[in-house]
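Action item from last week, closing it out:
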Amino acid sequence: MLRKLAYPALYFLLIATIPCSAIRIKTKELTVILSEQGEITGLQLAGGRLVKPFNLSTSLQGCKVKGVIISRKNGDGSVEFEKTLVNDSLLSSCVLTEHYFPTRNSIRCELTIKGKDEPWGASIDTKVAYPIRSGQSKIWTTWGAPQFDSAKVSSSLHHALRKFEPLSKTDNKHTWIDPLIPVPFSNTTYYYGAPYFQTNGMHVGFAPFQENLICIPMVTILEEADNSGVTIALSPKDNIIDLTMKTTDDGTITFSRLFNRISKNSTLSFSFDIVSHESDWRCGLSWMRDRYPGYFVPLNPLANQMGGTGAYSSYSMESLNFDIEKMKKMAFTVNWQASFDFPYMGMYLPPVQRNEKWRRFGGDMITIAEMDHFAKKYREKGFYVLNYFNVTEFGAKVKYPPASTEIHKPDAGLWKDCNELLYSKFKKAILPVPEKSIKDPKYKNAQVPVPFYTWEGGIAMDCGESSYSDFLLDQARRHVNEIPNSFGICIDRLDWLRMFNERADDGITWYEGKPARSIVTSWKKLSPKLSAIMHGANKVIFANNHTKRIDILEHVDGLFDEFTYAGSSLNLTSFLCVSKPALGWTDNAETIRHEGGDRFFQKYLYMGVFPMCPFPNNDHSITQSPDIDQFYLDYGPLMKLMQGREWVLKPHVASSKDQLAKVNVFKIRGGYSIPVVYAEKDNIELVLNDLDGLKERFSCLAYHPGSDQPVEVAYKKEGKMITLNVPVIRGCAMLYLSNKE
């Protein structure tokens, strides 16, 4: 912020507009050139390349600058610009301050916006205009799939971007496109996590099947000809309610922050960094992970041991016919317990004694002691159990309108009827249907809000309402105390986070022309408290995050994604979990048969995600069958080499000659695992670069699907470069590199 001096007249003289000569802010690898209006007009990158004209500026939609732009150079090398912005149609104004300064490896801009009038809202846009080189400049981001104009890509690039479709085509969800390939600029709008919610008939429930989603707010521009690149990275720490990223084929990129409130009572703060690097998509993602490790690395390292194929099952492990060794060969590790022990959604552990029975949602009777015994049986056999949890849904067969808002039953018995508990304790936590969407006039502005209905007659809830969040936290404490053999929880249905509670106010949201509470804000308020309970007891938190946003995962240790059988969801989950375990969903055996088993497994290896495995009693997911079981057994040894993996995000770390195979590199305990997949020849020439920790002589083994033993692979090491000729079987090899004893 500008430092105010004691004498206003002198202050004005000191901060008068900086002379017209360009302002330069420098780091070792990047120089940013700023105009006197506070707009970036050029960049000088690490190799000396000048990018000009290059324009980057922040504005508010519908606003224009009024009066003098105040600017100031500071002794620390930073510079500040203060602008008054006016929206004539809304009769509102604000002050935008932009503070540019160098960091160790970026130029950072911190924005503040302070309203002068009554609260209002406008899209806050950071726009980049990049001077593209025709046929050369490419763009990359953490997308569900690259969006590109087929007419503007070469035949070789078109081949690399080919869709892997089911052999027996069913629907578009099961197609997959390699997301690790930069493409030319195109006319596309990307949505951060999920499309923002609109009241004009948009579907409420959301599954991430769209390809035009991004999960990390960043974009990378690459120039292969001179090995240069630049990344613009927004901070996941910012209070982003919703965000879009729009690109055009002439080189324009616009980040639009939506639904933030501009007010004289509070100050909005946002930030972004500009990073110079080599021409590799890995560089920007690597910078993001290193700059914000709290969002990328599990808070509880125990989560890494849970990397493996998973289940969502009620199977109790009591059967003598259960083949433990077979499941271990399939790399099975964790069961997200789908026994529906709760009497209704939200009441995951009723307030009863340890051996007191209740009727669970599944229909029969159960006790807390039996729930713990279930988890203990898995633990004894070397597996993990995660209990079901949900912070956004409540009840079953909820009645609306309520029969009465006056409940006289003692608190001790309220839990037995979800309607009585809901309307006596959590009425304010009901996520309301927007008033403009309510058809029946008698329900408009009703004392009890009209709810959104969900599975089995439950309703959506706002976990930011203190009465309900306190209840959820108490549930978490009881899980820790009452089910010690469980390793933690997996939280379902985070798609509700994209909604708004128009009857509440989080102090920062402006939706449909008035204050509201974003459920993203509600979750960000709840999750650190939930983390303190679970992580404080050495438990883990996994999530089924339909809404694919990095900023909601700060306190989440790993993902168990219900939709990775869809290519876009697989890709988004992978990027969110470059340093976390990622477990994916297999909806049924037919999906694998239609896609082809080798194709199915190789995309999971490439993206570092574990597919759900065939398991007894799996709920709406894959169960056992001899032909598909065999594929899991064939690929089990290869998948085991991904446990605890982290993506290696060094520039140019791996490539195959003539792009005849897809290659990725993971760091694992004891060395590296390297999937070589979709190979188009029986032998693939592979070049690896700058793998830390490998001695001059090391072991390189190739594991192949369906082969009992790995084979030794010869290599040539020259300095930091390793060249190998990799034999593949069924188009695949998983390399394991480790130092010899």
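Closing note: The domain at 653-739 is CATH 2.60.40.1180 (Immunoglobulin-like).
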